Amino acid sequence: MADRSTSAVDVAQDSGDAPLTAKADDATADEEAGTPEGGTAHEGAQDSEADGEATRPAAPPELHSGHKLAKRYRLEECVTRLDGFSSWRAVDEKLRRAVGVHLLPAKHPRASAVLAAARSTALLTDPRFVQVLDAVEENNLVYVVHEWLPDATELTTVLASGPLEAHEAYELVCQVSEAMAAAHRADLAHLRLNPGAVLRTSTGQYRVRGLAVNAALRGVTSDDPERTDTEAIGALLYASLTQRWPYEEDAYGLSGLPKGVGLIPPDQVRAGVHRGLSELAMRALVNKGATASRQEQPCTTAADLVKAVAEMPRVRPPEPTYAAPPEYQNTTYQQGSYGRPSAVPGGITPPPAPPAPLQSRTGRALKWGVSALLIVALGLGSWQLADALMENDHGKQTHARSENQTTTEDTGKKAAAAVHPLKIVGAAEYYPDNRPQHPGDVGLTYDGKSDTYWRTKSFNDGPDMNPAFKQGLGIVYDLGSEKEISTASIGLRYQGDHTTITLYAADSLSSSAPLSSMDKIASTTTQGDTASIKVKKPMKSRYVVMWITAMPRSGLDEYSKPGYKQAITDVKFTG
Known about the structure:
- It is a single chain.
- By secondary structure, the chain is α+β, with helices and mostly antiparallel strands.
- It folds into three domains: 8-147, Phosphorylase Kinase, domain 1, CATH 3.30.200; 153-311, Orthogonal Bundle (Transferase(Phosphotransferase), domain 1), CATH 1.10.510.10; 422-574, Galactose-binding domain-like (Jelly Rolls).
- It has helices at 8-11, 41-51, 111-122, 155-160, 166-185, 213-218, 225-242, 266-269, 275-285, 302-311, 361-418; strands spanning 68-69, 73-82, 85-92, 97-105, 132-138, 141-147, 153-154, 198-200, 206-208, 244-245, 255-256, 421-422, 426-430, 454-455, 473-492, 499-506, 519-526, 530-550, 553-554, 563-564, 567-574.
- It is extended, with a radius of gyration of 36 Å.
- The chain starts with 7 loop residues before the first helix and ends with a strand.
């Protein structure tokens, strides 16, 4: 078995929580808008202890937002600062795209290893890895520039909402094992392959970040790199199937296995787990075979995993469901009898119609006589009719006004009765880009108190948010059951130019479901302290996403620094 001090087991001790930033204030990660490769304070402490270095690493240079590297990469926000290095979100001004940058002093004891790892990784152009774009040493600095994927979500966040379906878990192990097999063939290893290092894009593809570089930054090594990475893939598959970490320690937001029971197969942890994938996870995790009863050969390399996946039956996606077709109705036109006379029973042809009456000479005389009498009668009766109409006109008008008033009152009462408040039974912060604001405060938006708020962080760009860094932010609400939504009222703390809010009908309380999978309900833009949204065509949904894409600028307060920001309270829906 690989050295546990450097295997995926020990790396699993890291918490996997939000990265430690340069300052303690909320605002330190305000402009974070991608998927950084930074670690956590817990990771830094563990790795530093494991290194056992006698000398303290050189302090990172005092850099700030706006600083440029190579007259090209403009630093925007520090997202990680630990153990002598820092990680930044930056902008490549030459190509006008977001990038990530790792920075450390050239005299840092790991600087040469990081530079070598980055340059080796840059030669591997496999699209399943987050690509290293540049690796430079200049002005007493070493910096590594890599891709920034704002539309990707960490596997950590994906698993927070539940285990993966069998097909998704199958795609995960296929893509990650093939990627790592390609890396191993190029003599590259990851050594820190965990749920925070695997990203799922909006198209459902999986990307691996931090190949070789993350381990070099933290000084992680292994006596058997391929085995370490393979066991890590097994842990990823196990977690994807069960939403549990396959060791006794909790990690990456997942609960560990009960102490003392050992490693049990995923299909014994959770009902309904795919049997073949469960066995595959065990073969990757256990060094001396799977279990005594299954006698399967262990997978000790990523290439072994690729072969094992190819040999098992393909796990297909679930069949799409279709609505039942409308009931077929027979009509006269469909029966082919459109415009035809009805048939007479027995096949007897009806006799011809008799000639029209009053066609003889006597009949014509009688007809003219009757017409004359009618004209006289009409002349005499018209005077009486006009007189009666004039007498009753006033009374009818009064009666009509009375009926009008009664109808208007009834309509108003019916309209008032038709609109009723919808109760919110739950909520979760919605952050599909894996950069939450304050998830623990979403309940303050519907607690009935106007002085409690859920707050965003403070951003440099605005009022409209910069899609290159962050497309928006919001909350998804649970109405308990499917309800028809007609209006929404949202209280705002900050006024000014301007706040834009859009409502979407969602399928679940997920914090990471893509907006493209939802139906737009309605939108509004306001400069005041209330956003009122009226739905033109009422829609039914149980889950409603409130999505903010523009916020006004406000000054320094007790909660955050000056910038574009908003706070939400008193959210109400009516149906």
